[in-house]
Amino acid sequence: MLKTKLPVIVLRNMILLPSGELKLEVSDVEDKEIIKKSCNMHDSYVLLISPTNIYEENLKLEDLPKIGTIGKITSNFELPNSNMRITITGVNRAQIFEYVEEKELNAVIGPVKIIKNDEEIEEAILRRLKSEFISYISIMPNISNGLINRITDESHLEKLSDVVANILPLKFELKLKYLNELNSVTRAEELIKDIQKEKSIGSIDKELDEKLKI
């Protein structure tokens, strides 16, 4: 298995899934150095991890997660207040074999094991996930046409499930569950349930809006 080492950015109460995008304003000196190292030495790639205990300040290496997201810094500039504003695109999940403390935190990583499913099952779940999401759009009109086209055109369940999970307004715990779930069929099945919940909530919100209109 091919292994590599990348600098690590620790996210608090947020998660970047593959195929997603995250915009950050960075003020911490150590994080700035990690970003510079990523851009100068690792072709702008960095590993993002999201510890389960979001309130623990002094995290031990053994308590850090074993699955993270490889991200690519696609934009990076310094603000007038000396903070850095960066945009990171999620690329792939990564298996974390070891954390290494140098001047900054690094991790030895490799690809996760992709679970193979029956092709017909994957195709059926892919179609159902698209159908549920298109139905969800009808009550969530703020989703851009670009994202809608991206979903309707996507032919791989592995990527589609991540794109949908990034869009849905899910709590931290749910997104963490989707990051750690390596079976795309299982991810998609759970996403379908979450979409149905969101549709129900959205319908109730619409009814309340109508009742509260003056």
Query: What Rg is obtained from the alpha carbons, in whole angstroms?
Result: 19 Å
What's the count of strands?
6
* SS class: alpha+beta
Nearest-integer average pLDDT: 89
Task: For the largest sheet, list the strands in their spatial order.
Answer: 1-3-4-5-6
**Assembly form of the protein:** single chain
Globally, the shape reads globular
If helices are DSSP runs of H or I spanning 4 or more residues, what is the number of helices? 6
- Low-confidence stretches at least 5 residues in length (pLDDT < 50)? none
Largest sheet: 5 strands, mixed, barrel
Percentage beta strand: 25-35%
Helix content: 40-55%
Instruction: For the record, give the distance between the C-alpha atoms at the N and C termini, rounded to a whole number.
Output: 64 Å
What is the gist of this entry?
The chain has helices spanning about 30-40, 120-135, 145-155, 155-165, 170-180, 185-210; strands spanning about 5-10, 20-25, 45-50, 65-80, 85-100, 105-110. With about 210 residues, the protein is α+β, with helices and mostly antiparallel strands.
Topology, element by element:
Blueprint: E1 4-10, E2 21-26, H1 29-41, E3 45-49, E4 67-78, E5 84-101, E6 105-111, H2 119-137, H3 145-153, H4 157-167, H5 172-180, H6 184-212
Parallel strand pairs: 1-3
Antiparallel strand pairs: 1-6, 2-5, 3-4, 4-5, 5-6
Descriptive report:
With 214 residues, the chain is an alpha+beta fold. Helix content is 42%, strand content 26%. The chain contains 6 helices and 6 strands, in the order E-E-H-E-E-E-E-H-H-H-H-H. It has a 5-stranded mixed beta barrel. The radius of gyration is 19 Å and the shape is globular. It starts with a strand and ends with a helix.
